[in-house]
Amino acid sequence: MRMTKQLLMGAVLGIVMVGTAGAYDGDWKRGRVYYRQVCTDCHQSMAKKTISPNEKTKAEWTAYITADKHDATKKSNPSLKYATSRAYRDSIKTKNKAAEKFLEVPDAELQADIKAWVLYGAKDSDNPSRCQ
Amino acid sequence: MTTQRVYIFKRFERFWHWTQAALIIFMMLTGFEVHGTYTLLGWAKAAQLHTNAAWALVALWVFAIFWHFTTGEWKQYIPTMEKVDVMVKYYVTGIFTDAPHPFRTTPLIKHNPLQRLAYLFVKLLINPLIWISGFAYLFYRDLGAIGLGGLPLAPIALVHTAAAFLMLIFFIAHIYLATAGHTPTAHIKAMIIGYEDVEDHGAAPAGKSAG
Amino acid sequence: MNLPPGTTWLKVAVTIMLATAFTAMPAAGASKSTADHSKFKELQQNFQSGPEVTKACLSCHTEAAKQVQKTKHWTWEYLNPENKQRLGKKNVINNFCIAVPSNYAACTACHIGYGWKDDKFDFTVETNVDCLACHDTTGSYLKLAGMAGHVPYKDMEYPPGSGSFVKATDLKKVAQKVGKTSRDTCGACHFNGGGGNAVKHGDLDTSLEAPDKELDVHMDSLGLNFTCATCHKTGGHDVAGSRYAPTAVDRKGAQVRGSEDRKNPATCQSCHGQAPHTKTAKLNDHTSKLACQTCHVPSFARGGIATKMSWDWSTAGKMGPDGKPMTVKDDKKHVIYDSKKGDFVLAENVTPEYIWFNGSVQYTLRGDPVEKSDQPTRINRFEGSPHDGKSVIWPVKVFRGQQPYDTVSKSLVILHTTGNDDASYWKHFNWEKAIAAGMASVGDTFSGKYDFVKTEMTWPITHMVAPKDKAVGCVECHKAGGRLEKIEGVYIPGRSRDHLGLLDTAGWSLAALTLFGVVVHGSLRIATRKKKD
Q1: What are the backbone dihedrals phi and psi of residue C371, each rounded to the nearest 5 degrees, phi first?
Q2: Domain-by-domain residue ranges, chain A?
Q3: Distance (Å, rounded) from C-alpha C81 to C-alpha A38?
Q4: I need a surface site. Which of B64, B121, C249, C460 has the fewest CB within 10 A?
Q5: Coil, strand, or helix at residue C212?
Q6: Best mutation site among C280, C476, C499 for testing chain B: the one with the most B CBs within 10 Å?
Q7: Which is it for strands C411-412 and C392-406: parallel, antiparallel or unpaired?
Q8: Complex ipTM above 0.90?
Q9: What is the DSSP string of B10-31?
Q10: Which of C381, C432, C434 is nearest to C407 (CA)?
Q11: B69-97, pLDDT tens digit by residue?
């Protein structure tokens, strides 16, 4: 009985936490594939350069993601969320295989994946990583 | 002087001649590109089409050989040294002095003695050289099956190239001599429509003997 | 509330949350393993060190360490059965960081063991085997240079004195999430050979962690998604396909399940067989002379990361204006000079060099005579010839450099580069001391006189296989001055240097003469006809 009670309480608390923290633990490896094959592809053609996870610290990335300001040139949709949205993936799916492959991944999941990747490879992380 | 219309080249013969001509011209063009003489179609395409044309020519030849033997036309190529000197003399001097053409074309003897020799040379020397070296070139990895394993590509290519040059030389001379009939267009016309207008002057020395 | 000691609500909650996330969200390429290691009691403990984790692993995988200890990955040693040369990472001298001995603590960050900090390392202790280096799936298990193969067990300043910090590795998490090897685990060392990303091989760098199809048709992360082990198939922890015993030519057909006729299943042929070109059969004829890679790896360092092409140690040791070690970068931000190492040349999208190779490699080892000359000393000579019947043309990266040698004993030397002692070259920049320490570490002597000798090292190019439409086109070799211009012993149609000059000259001359003849003859005919008229 005591066991059951503990588990039940744990589960309740767990659900509460899931509700606040998001139900999904970002998969940095999937984030890396999307980042390298979608994000970098566009960075190279639009910004003429690559942008690597190791260019910002974890705190800077978190702040950047929260701010949701992406393309400062206004050449494209300025929202960061848009660049990972299903709508965006749908718009480039014919020319980008990664966008096509991940088309049906829920936005929140993919955003968590990418966040996990940039934090994994951030400047102050244990393994600062490049976009390539 | 009258002229007589003679049916020289039959339908298949004309088809065979012009298809073969087209294929050989195309194969010389692609072949010398493969050799590295110039860039025209791009190497890969040239090599591929050269091979395809070779197979097309093989098919054409199967029919042509069958036709020559079933119709007896192969006899047209039996060589003769008779009157060769007359022909040579005509090409060297007579042709410039409006001398009568020493040879009279008939359906039974379509080629003058020089032509006979030249075509036989093509058929017995150039063609075998080209075909044998060409097939060895194409299948050089499988030469072991006929006991020639380990034969390197270089000598095969060398023979093939040499034969190609011979073909080119023949080709140049052949085109020119096509204009050296009774009239400059007589031979060419005959090869297109089949009929040749043969001059019927009774005193033509070679013509008489040929007739 | 009556919880077991040490348990907090948070932990329970997190566990449940993680479990929920994992069952609900199998990410791409989810494991099909029948074992969830997080459920094993042996792994539910707060490990204090790597060897403790290994001990737990070995309590079930009883033979694993014994298997590992037989491999080159463990011994860093290989005896070439052909020429009896004693090779392996421990013994060879290269023209990158030169040699492992005297630098163990740094180099053995890439050893699959714990504690190899000097030549006293005990290779027989099973718990010295590092399972996690290869079986980590979290990406958080990082062996750092200078720690003799250990990971940080507590938060620490790294590199010492740098002011930056690394966190302790969560060994429990890593242990509970073990899985198959991946491009990340193999790549942690093999992508970084020679001291950094992309430095050494040219066809192996971190761009292969998540490559697209253009970069590697097999490792394409959206497609076939091969791991290293898909080709480098292991049996009993022995990884197939070693550079020390290369298979230059494979004449066997595709490997059928169950057959064991191959000692190296990592060759292209072991899957593709001998006649893989179905559309253009002529291409199959090329396999008697060419390795698959010659056409199918059109260039290396294709993933956007430059590889080192040369390294000149002779210029090392110059200090910056402040008297401190410096680095110089080019406009692409590549380091092209480092006081510790000398001058570098880096390049991307490099067209390989091509050589005849039969699989035999002859090393220039310590003690083998070297001479200073314009002809570089070949550190590993790839043997082969068009006429030995067992060579094919291979693409290679040739890495050129200058490195120290003993001018008296005429031998390449070991350089003690790493560490904080007073002989370390990277600390004190004193060649004599550093070489003496390097040589002493293997019981060898140094005359005290050194100079620099030109060296070359050859690396087979075999990764970064392009999709077929990006393979090397015919005309890149079938022309004058093409990729294989320098290759002897083979007739390449279209390569003009293979032509018999006499034949071409005679052929064209005769053709021209014929043309000239008919033109003259024709002109005469026209001329004489006009006269008659």
Answers
A1: -125, 140
A2: 25-120
A3: 48
A4: B121
A5: coil
A6: C499
A7: antiparallel
A8: no
A9: -HHHHHHHHHHHHHHHHHHHHH
A10: C432
A11: 898 888 777 777 777 788 888 888 877 78
Residues of B at the C interface (Cβ-Cβ below 8 Å)? Answer: 34-36, 39, 42-44, 47-48, 51, 91, 95-98, 138, 140-141, 152-154, 157-158, 161-162, 164-165, 168-169, 172-173, 175-176, 179
Prior bond of C159 cis (ω within 30°): yes
Q: What is the DSSP string of B93-108?
A: TGGGTTPPPS----SS
* Beta bridge mates, C363: C380
**Cross-chain CB nearest to C479 (options B36, B141, B176):** B36
What Å distances lie between residue C231 and C265, C272, C312, C358, CA to CA?
Answer: 7, 12, 35, 21
- Specify the DSSP element, H or E, that contains C353: strand C353-357
pTM: 0.86
Residue C281 CA: distances (Å) to CA of B138, B139, C74, C286, C334: 11, 11, 44, 10, 44
Chains interfacing with B (3 or more CB pairs < 8 Å): C
Q: At what angle do helices A2-21 and C9-24 cross, to 10 degrees?
A: 70
CB atoms within 10 A of CB C68: 23
Confidence of residue A23 (pLDDT cuts 50, 70, 90): low
Pairing relationship of beta strands C234-235 and C238-239 according to DSSP bridges: antiparallel
Q: Is the pLDDT of residue A34 over 80?
A: yes
Three-state SS sequence of C111-178: CCECCCCCCCCCCCCHHHECCHHHHCCCCCCCCCCCCCCCCCCCCEECCCCCCCEECCCCHHHHHHCC
Q: Which residues of A touch C27 (CB under 8 A)?
A: 27, 29-30
Beta strands in chain B (DSSP E): 3-7, 195-199
Contact by Cβ (8 Å): B197, B3:
yes
**pLDDT for B199:** 66
Q: Report the DSSP beta bridge partners of residue C453.
A: C403
Using a CB-CB cut-off of 8 Å, the residues of chain C touching A129 are: 206
pLDDT at residue B208 greater than cutoff 50:
no
pLDDT digits (tens, 9 = 90+) for B97-114: 877 777 777 777 777 777
Task: Note the pLDDT of residue B180.
Answer: 78
What pLDDT sits at residue B132?
94
Mind telling me how many Å the CA of B167 is from chain C's nearest CA? 10
From chain C, the residues in CB contact with A109 under 8 A are 25
Tokens of C268: 């292209």
What's phi and psi for C233, nearest 5 deg?
-70, 130
Give the nearest chain C residue to B165 (CA atoms).
C507
Q: What share of chain A is helix, strand, coil (3-state, %, to 5)?
A: 60, 0, 35
> Which runs of consecutive H residues, i.e. helices, occur in C216-347?
228-231, 269-272, 282-285, 292-296
* Nearest-angstrom CA–CA distance, C108 and C110: 5
Report the Cα A116 to chain-centroid distance in Å.
6
User: What integer pLDDT is reported at residue A19 of this predicted model?
Assistant: 41
Q: Any residues with CB less than 8 A from the CB of C242 and at least 6 apart, and which? A: C72, C78
State residue C494's pLDDT score: 95
B153 has a pLDDT exceeding 80: yes
How far apart CA C280 and CA C265 sit, in angstroms, is 26
Q: Is residue A125 within 8 Å of A119, Cβ to Cβ?
A: yes
Return the structure tokens found at B22.
């087209």
pLDDT (tens digit per residue) in C388-420: 999 999 999 999 999 999 999 999 999 999 998
Q: How far is CA A127 from CA A51, B132, B152, C176, C463, in A?
A: 16, 64, 55, 21, 24
Spell out which residues of chain B touch residue C518, defining contact as CB-CB under 8 Å: 172-173, 175-176
Nearest residue of chain A to residue C24 (CA atoms): A24
Mark the ranges of chain C whose per-residue pLDDT is less than 70.
1-31, 530-533
Residue B68 three-state SS: helix
